[in-house]
Write a structure and sequence with these properties.
The chain is mostly helical and 348 residues long. It has a domain of 77 residues. It contains ten helices and four strands, in the order ββββαααααααααα. The chain has a two-stranded antiparallel ribbon with strand order 1-2. Strands 3-4 form a two-stranded antiparallel sheet. The two termini are 40 Å apart. About 7% of the residues have low confidence.
C-alpha cells in the first residue's frame, strides 16, 4: 500500500510503498529525509518551518523576493525502490541481478531521451568517426605521411576516451536522479585509468605467460606437442582472468566517480564485490545474451530474406538494449559502492 510522504525541504509529495519505510531517500530538490509514517499536520508544519529557518536557499528566497522558488518534483522524480542501498560502513551489500535489470529498465524509461543521447548518440558519433578514418587512412598516408598515419589514430583514441568519460559521468548523474547539465566531464581520473590499464595488462600478460607457457612446455617435453599444451593452458588462464575481472570490475567506476587512485580502486572493488561476484557474472551474461540473441535474430531475418524485419533487431539494439546495457553496470555499481559512503568530491 502506498503512503503519501511530503519532502520537508520543498513540500513535494511522493507516493512510497510501506515496504520502503525506514530507508533514507533523496528528493529532487536535494533534501535527504527518512521515509517514515507521516506525523500529524501540526508537527509537519513545525518541522518544515524549522528546516526553512536553517536552509540557505530559504534565507536567500526571503532576502530576495525575485529569487526563483525551489523546484517541486513530480511523483516520478523519486522512487525509494530505485535508490541505492543504504548501508553502514563495513556492511556487505547484497546485489540482486534481476532487480538490477528491472531498475535499469525503469531508469531508462524515466529519462529515455537523455540516456539515448549519452549512449546511442555518442556511440554513433564515435563509430562514424572511426569508420571515416578507416576509409581515408590510405589518403592520410599519401597527404600527411607517417604523421597522419600515427597522429590521427591517437587523436581518435583520445576522442573515444573523452566520449567514454562523458557517458560514465552522465549516466551516473541520471541514475542518481540528478539533472543532466551538458557534456561536462573531468579529465582528472584519466591518469589513474591509464595506470589501471597498465596494471591490468601486466596481470593478464603474466597469467597468460605462466599458464600457457608452462603447460605448453610440459606438453612439448612429454608428448612433443606444445601447441595442444598452450591451448589447454589457455583454459585456466581465461577462467582466472574472468574471476579477477569480476573482483576488480568496479575499479574504473570508482576512479571516475570517487577520484581515487588505481591501487585504492582495486582494493575497494575487491571489498564491495565480495559476496556479489555471482550476481555480477549474471549481469554480464545477461548483457552478452541480449547481444547474441539480437544478432542471431537479425542474421536469421537476413538469411531467410525478410529484409524489412532484418533491421528491427538492430533498431532494438541501438535504441533500447544498448542504453539498457550501459545503465545496468552503473545501477550495480551504485548499490555496491553505497557501503563506502557518499561521494566527497562530486563532478564540477
Amino acid at each position: 500500500m502506498a503512503i503519501a510522504l511530503t519532502c520537508p525541504g520543498c513540500g513535494g509529495t511522493h507516493n512510497i510503498e510501506e515496504a520502503h519505510l525506514g530507508r533514507t531517500a533523496k528528493c529532487g530538490c536535494g533534501t535527504r529525509f527518512k521515509l517514515a509514517k507521516p506525523a500529524p499536520a501540526a508537527e509537519q508544519a513545525k518541522a518544515r518551518q524549522e528546516l526553512a529557518d536553517e536552509s540557505p536557499r530559504s534565507n536567500e528566497t526571503r532576502e530576495n523576493p525575485y529569487a526563483a522558488p525551489p523546484p517541486i518534483p513530480s511523483e516520478a522524480a523519486i522512487s525509494a525502490e530505485d535508490l541505492p542501498q543504504e548501508l553502514e560502513e563495513g556492511e556487505i551489500p547484497h546485489l540482486d541481478a534481476v532487480d538490477v535489470v528491472a531498475r535499469s529498465h525503469r531508469t531508462f524509461m524515466r529519462r529515455p531521451l537523455a540516456i539515448l543521447g549519452l549512449t546511442a548518440g555518442l556511440s554513433l558519433i564515435s563509430g562514424a568517426i572511426g569508420a571515416l578514418h578507416g576509409m581515408t587512412q590510405g589518403g592520410m598516408h599519401l597527404h600527411y605521411g607517417w604523421i597522419g598515419v600515427v597522429g590521427f589514430p591517437v587523436v581518435i583514441t583520445f576522442f573515444n576516451i573523452w566520449i567514454s568519460l562523458v557517458q560514465a559521468f552522465g549516466v551516473l548523474d541520471l541514475c542518481r536522479g540528478k539533472p543532466l547539465s551538458g557534456l561536462r566531464v573531468s579529465l582528472r581520473p584519466l591518469p589513474h585509468l591509464l595506470v589501471l590499464a597498465v596494471i591490468v595488462g601486466a596481470v593478464i600478460t603474466v597469467i597468460g605467460t605462466l599458464l600457457c607457457g608452462s603447460v605448453g612446455l610440459l606438453f612439448e617435453f612429454l608428448f612433443r606437442n606444445g601447441v595442444i599444451g598452450i591451448g589447454i593452458g589457455a583454459v585456466p588462464a581465461i577462467a582466472l582472468t574472468l574471476f579477477l575481472g569480476l573482483i576488480f570490475s568496479q575499479s574504473p567506476l570508482l576512479i571516475i566517480d570517487r577520484r581515487v587512485g588505481a591501487l585504492r580502486a582495486l582494493a575497494q572493488s575487491k571489498q564491495i564485490t565480495y559476496g556479489n561476484r555471482g550476481a555480477l557474472l549474471l549481469i554480464a551474461l545477461t548483457q552478452l545474451g541480449l547481444t547474441i540473441v539480437t544478432s542471431l535474430l537479425g542474421g536469421l531475418c537476413f538469411l531467410i530474406g525478410v529484409w524489412p524485419a532484418a533491421i528491427v533487431p538492430g533498431i532494438a539494439m541501438l535504441f533500447y538494449l544498448l542504453p539498457l546495457m550501459m545503465v545496468m553496470p552503473i545501477i550495480a555499481y551504485l548499490d555496491l559502492s553505497s557501503v563506502l559512503g557518499p561521494v566527497d568530491d562530486p563532478v564540477e
